[in-house]
Task: inverse folding
């Protein structure tokens, strides 16, 4: 039976494991952490991601543990609307985006991976184009090796050498709180060099996120700083901040990757943040990892050349990285004149224009044909032939 060795047991790695399993391949997931777990935060999944999850047979399960996002938009720090997202048009054309807790998504993916296929506490140190994977417990070998090992990917080195992630110029906080009263319409509020957003989770808790311009690695930035920065913003932000516990706050500097020349080398393919880490301004990082997983399994298990995966995924994901970076730059504008001009422009932009601009991101369809293939599926063609 052909085999895929998957480095990394995050959203991208687990989704890939499921996609290859559905097509009859053996899989081995190597995860550095001793447990498969996600950070305590929410995650939005757009309709394109739900279509990828449908290809994995998991869209209904995910919807069952998620909440449909029924409103969205951007306000200023006083709560005046700058733009409204036409969520109804999105729902009609593409399906509803959903919000859920990351731990729930990871739990669903983990349960769909065959028992025993995930090896935790194993750190990969090197990968060779012939499919050999060197790790802390010895070596493994696959017909395909998938680098799903995140933004600081070790596997990426074997595909395109040393690539340094780019700092966005701003840091992000995330937390999940239990509100004292319902928060009303979700959305994001943009100030000067900082933003605050919130969205309700299915269990009534609220996922809050914030950003601020800051040098990379700036220490501190705890609850006091969050309250100082956002405590005077519009309701319900002060009440949300009053409900935050110090230990529940996550703070991460935000990085993305410059465009890679290729996602593949020999038997190796990169996906998710290892291939195209992006700033979270479009909420598409994990969505793209899910798409990658479906396309990679489709191409590889049909005996296709991995360069087909590269040509299907690289232009699309790099377009989204670029857009996310641009939206972040606009959202983080800080000079008073630039903020005034930005806000005026946002007010003047019809929601139909915004809707149209989302189309190239949301209109992705999963590849057709060959889904749920049997174990007789032939392995991919490689320059040196299959390993089986
Ligand atoms: C603030 C913020 C908000 C976000 N919001 C959203 C959102 O709303 N919607 C969305 O779609 N995306 C969002 N994203 C992006 C999303 O979180 C990522 O794109 C996604 O989690 C990437 O998944 P991945 O599996 O590619 O990588 P990761 O989640 O980084 O997983 C990589 C895995 O590989 C393991 N690993 C690393 N190195 C090794 C090694 N050498 N050997 C073995 N294992 C290794 C790690 O331990 C880890 O488990 C957000 C990101 C941030 C920072």
Result:
């Amino acid at each position: 039976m052909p085999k895929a060795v998957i480095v990394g047991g995050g959203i991208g790695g687990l989704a890939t494991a499921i996609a290859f399993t559905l097509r009859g391949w053996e899989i081995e997931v190597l995860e550095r952490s001793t447990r498969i777990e996600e950070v305590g935060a929410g995650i939005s999944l757009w309709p394109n991601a739900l279509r990828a999850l449908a290809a994995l047979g998991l869209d209904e399960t995910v919807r069952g543990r998620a909440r449909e996002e029924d409103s969205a938009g951007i306000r200023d720090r006083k709560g005046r609307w700058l733009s409204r997202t036409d969520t109804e048009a999105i729902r009609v054309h593409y399906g509803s985006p959903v919000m859920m807790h990351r731990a729930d998504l990871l739990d669903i993916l983990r349960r769909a991976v065959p028992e025993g296929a995930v090896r935790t506490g194993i750190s990969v140190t090197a990968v060779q184009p012939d499919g050999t994977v060197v790790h802390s417990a010895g070596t493994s070998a696959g017909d395909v090796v998938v680098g799903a090992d995140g933004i600081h990917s070790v596997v990426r080195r074997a595909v395109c050498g040393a690539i340094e992630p780019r700092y966005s110029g701003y840091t992000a906080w995330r937390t999940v709180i239990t509100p004292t009263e319902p928060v009303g319409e979700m959305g994001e509020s943009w100030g000067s060099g900082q933003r605050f957003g919130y969205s309700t989770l299915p269990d009534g808790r609220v996922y809050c996120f914030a950003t601020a311009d800051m040098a990379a690695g700036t220490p501190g930035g705890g609850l006091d700083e969050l309250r100082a920065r956002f405590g005077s913003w519009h309701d319900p932000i002060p009440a949300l901040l009053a409900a935050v516990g110090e230990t529940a706050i996550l703070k991460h500097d935000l990085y993305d990757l410059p465009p890679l020349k290729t996602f593949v080398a020999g038997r190796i393919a990169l996906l998710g943040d290892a291939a195209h880490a992006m700033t979270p301004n479009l909420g598409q990082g994990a969505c793209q990892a899910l798409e990658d997983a479906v396309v990679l399994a489709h191409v590889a298990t049909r005996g296709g050349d991995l360069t087909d995966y590269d040509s299907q995924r690289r232009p699309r994901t790099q377009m989204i990285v670029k857009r996310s970076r641009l939206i972040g730059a606009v959202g983080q504008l800080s000079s008073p004149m630039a903020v005034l001009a930005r806000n005026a422009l946002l007010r003047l932009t019809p929601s139909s224009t915004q809707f149209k601009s989302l189309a190239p991101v949301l209109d992705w369809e999963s590849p057709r044909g060959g889904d749920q293939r049997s174990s007789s599926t032939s392995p991919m063609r490689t320059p040196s032939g299959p390993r089986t």
User: Anything to note?
Assistant: The longest strand covers residues 166-177. Residues 7-13, 30-33, 43-44, 123-124, 148-150, 154, 172, 174, 252, 254, 272-273, 280, 283-287, 289 surround flavin-adenine dinucleotide (CB under 6 Å).
